[in-house]
């Protein structure tokens, strides 16, 4: 009751400061995004070209990350792989969250049968393990970029829906929404103006977490041979291609793995060290 | 005489969200003699709970004791190690929390938690502890003292839990007990019984106490001495009698002044000459839960309530928690569609559900909620909050809207500079003014005020009430004023309706209060409101039959 | 009070059944409504249109989808899972032994992962903010951030390649002694334990920390209770429901992990069977495997919810 509240003295953007770990996480993430954008102009060798007769070669002056099982340059392939891994994941996670958050807010604001049906159905979808869903769809329709993006989006819509709905339901019980409602405002106004601004922080945080899951799922699917198809390769597919080098620790296996790990760990660290203000109530 | 507690130049620092350190207790010193009860009184943010908790060497997360000493029975709690502090807690100093409902572990029986102190400190065998606990239950006049301990916390009422938490504090036979607003969450009729129980137990065992409260009338009943706090500093110290009757400090006088608001003058109310009522509610029925076969909801929160409000006149609705007064407001506003009865407003029948009412009907009837914190969208600036109804109802744009926003702020006595602020940057009273200004922006005929002063400190609440009266004179509004606090309702209303268990008990005028012909429940309710007189509790006599019939303790 | 608990549990079971129905619907239509004509796939590109039409008729492929769904569902309920497209054997025979292998793997992993995660999760919550807590948190973040195949490959690099302690491949059918059994299981179990525990530790820690922030935990502190007592007596009994939920949710990660782990270690379980079935587009086999996994997932979450209901003291 009597927790001291600092008085009305103007506060300069409280709590928006990042700490060191957060900055490092953000920098690594930024690095990979930039790489994904500029990869075609910076790669030392064309990705599909066999440039060395020594396959699974170690690190050398010519090939900074060695070569793969066909003798292609790993550095070039890792840089180009960023396009697939980051690009596909980002596209599908954005799609998933836009659909999930919109449906979640609509369900929370409308309530009634619409809410019940949406919640029940998406909860049921949630009980299909994600990799399994990927397997089933790929088995049925084969793998292509649009299929991958849509499948992974479908996998994460239910989770995003559930998260956004829970937040929106909390906001929806607040008196300011009641006030707007009995002012006569329509559903669209309620969603865009009253609910969305108040859940945006946690929703963006959730998008980050889901991005990590998507990267892992994509890598897993590619590793199983169900993701990005040759001649293109994302990082997961590169591990699969070169798995024969695992027994002697070839750089061709290690570098794609490291690439995935740096991306996902940095995003996780960034989220864990976000300013409290943004992260509020996002640990659901 | 040696003091039991000596606090010298106590300073507590807190870390804000922004990472800055601010001093929230700025050098407080006072003593407590053995057996003496000292009250810490002040508004929220005055640091009263923080000071009380330092007696146990404890500060809440983010705070720490940054200076001074807190000597309890010869030991300085500030200097002790965490382990030594734990030895003192529960044995020398004990704590009675504000919300016993939250402070009891839901997964363990009451008895286990009451005697836990004796287990932790190895004070006595379990059987002896149980016997002592039952004695305490009896002394605190709890029902079924022999078996109540076997229950789980959610199985007993709030008033009982509050007394059980006192038993939990007293079982270790402490020298000082800290009471942290222990009756604030209770209804007035329940509060009396709890206060009486505390007082008699403390007096009988000669235990010293620190009583933290914002309510001077409650404190007057139980404290020997009163410390008036504000902003982490002591404003005035004195015996209860001295503080109540000969206050020295301006702030103390303000506190006392807020306690007795000026009633609405009859002249103000007499200007009304309208024959037709503005609002007529006829046999209203509403409730929650699934509909039963007879078309009525499972839980009927309102049972056939009728009332009428004339233009320019105010109706107060008073009752204890759960009596249906808030439900009544929600049913009238159309937030909770009624299941029976009729509402006629301004000569026209209103639809049950707000969604089916016309924009004009919605505009004429506004509602203001208790908590400005949840009623104001934290993502918007004050300007946006006030601007929206102006645009929505009156189609105001650009400059005209800006001017009107400034006008509205002026009407509720807020500076123009708050326009670009967000609600979280304002104080509690300022927020409630914005909340009210938003209702005014619609230019309504009737405003439903649901406990709008209950979350505010007394002085601030009194100012808000004055503002409401002033606006009424200027704008010719009517209010329906819902509150659990009789003094607030008396100050502003022409008529008062008493509610109990979803029904209207009676309707009377403020001058009728205290007459013998009042309904028995009204008499009980009115007599239970604490008075500033220290002898009030001891001299109060209530009909036990009546208490049994109407109190859910 | 008892009847309230029973009706809540009955309600939960009802929801589980409805969910399973929706899932079966989704699985069936995801596999059979999407493009690609099964008959032409089965007969290959050289097939005549007459042959394709004949097969379609024989397989009832021309019936409305809803009838085919009904027939398929009825078959599942009566234990008739259909026959494999790839080799014409009953699916029941293909799955039987492999399901047991997968369950063995899951059981052994659970046996290791649950106590380990409970211990680490609770202790790091107790010592919140300490070096120990930070190390545990950092490790779990690292583990949940990397794909399962990376955990597996790292484990192979360490235990098989560098140390040479364990074989890289598993053949559960050729086990003759206990020692061999342990060696065969070790790599998959280690990998899966890492994958599952990271989630479990995080969620257990969060559940305990949340109860430690309640007023009754503060009250216990003000009674002079030690940290251990506050956790054991006050926080844990109330965190039981959330912890059970965390366990169930994390164990469901087993399913995802099992697919990768069985593939990498060549372990003859259902997941491997399913990945192989995907390669041959053997739809009936895929459908059945998918249903088995979804059922496993649902059983876990339902059990967790029931534990949460039973652990709620307000319903006692």
TrEMBL record, chain A:
Family matches, as CDD domains: TM_PBP2 (cd06261)
GO biological process: transmembrane transport
InterPro entries: BP-dependent_transpt_permease, MetI-like, MetI-like_sf
Residues spanning the membrane: 20-43, 84-113, 133-157, 207-228, 248-271
Membrane topology: Multi-pass membrane protein
Entry's localization field: Cell membrane
Swiss-Prot/TrEMBL keywords: Cell membrane, Membrane, Transmembrane, Transmembrane helix, Transport
Main location: membrane
Limits of the ABC transmembrane type-1 domain: 82-271
Recorded family membership: Belongs to the binding-protein-dependent transport system permease family.
Protein name, UniProt field: Peptide/nickel transport system permease protein
From TrEMBL, chain B:
A GO molecular-function annotation: ATP binding
CDD domains membership: ABC_NikE_OppD_transporters (cd03257)
GO cellular component, one term: plasma membrane
Membrane disposition: Peripheral membrane protein
Any Pfam family the entry gives: oligo_HPY
PANTHER family, sorted: TRANSPORT ATP-BINDING PROTEIN (PTHR43776)
Protein name in the entry: Peptide/nickel transport system ATP-binding protein
Organism the protein comes from: Insolitispirillum peregrinum
Lineage: Bacteria, Pseudomonadati, Pseudomonadota, Alphaproteobacteria, Rhodospirillales
From TrEMBL, chain C:
InterPro entries: BPD_transp_1_N (IPR045621), MetI-like (IPR000515), MetI-like_sf (IPR035906)
Superkingdom classification of source: Bacteria
Record's keyword terms, sorted: Cell membrane, Membrane, Transmembrane, Transmembrane helix, Transport
Annotated ranges, domain ABC transmembrane type-1: 99-304
Entry keyword annotation includes Transmembrane helix: yes
GO cellular component: plasma membrane
Molecular functions per Gene Ontology: dipeptide transmembrane transporter activity
Segments passing through the bilayer: 12-34, 102-123, 135-161, 181-201, 239-265, 285-311
Membrane topology: Multi-pass membrane protein
Subcellular location: Cell membrane
Record family assignment: Belongs to the binding-protein-dependent transport system permease family.
Name the UniProt record assigns to this protein: Peptide/nickel transport system permease protein
